[in-house]
Amino acid sequence: MEWKKEAPYLASLPRTMPYGVPENYFNELSKNINQTVFLTSFSAKENQGFNVPENYFEILTSQIETNIALQKINLKDDGFSIPSNYFENLQAKIVAKTNAKPTKIIRLWASDFNKYAAAACVILISAFTLFLNQQAEINTKNDAELANEQMLYGIDESVIIEHIQEKSTVSNTDTDLENYILNNFSTRDISNNL
Questions:
Q1: Closest CA to 109 of 97, 119, 98
Q2: Which helix H or strand E contains 127, and what residues bound it?
Q3: What's the CA gap between 83 and 145, in Å, rounded?
Q4: pLDDT per residue over 79-111, tens digit each?
């Protein structure tokens, strides 16, 4: 009853069956199925595939031999033929063809200029290749140094100062300071800082 209150228009429509069934459909259904099965069994027997004529395999060899004999009779030519005196004249024809055209000699290096130009090209290409390889190595070194520097920027200054103070082996006495300066700095550095 609640759906009638929510959809009054739907509730007011007449109730009819939208699908129609022929008369006596269910009474004649089994009879119709049996007739269809019976008819399909006839059509299946008609199309059973290829049929071989009687005595086909016994007659086959004689038919093949007969066809071959007929083809031999119908051939007008005996196949390939060789012109008369072919092998006697062959050597003379080959010699005539080889001597007819003078041989043309093409030098690889027509002049000294071509030799030097080719050598210069080889040198330029190899120098350019070496230059590109060196530039690639420099770029990889610069990238590695840049990455190391960027890692140092992430470290706090107080941590660096503490590390230096812990690793410092210099004491406050004058001889120790003098030995440290002499061991760690060159004479040029000392003279420039004075």
A1: 119
A2: helix 112-153
A3: 85
A4: 677 888 888 888 888 888 877 666 677 777 677
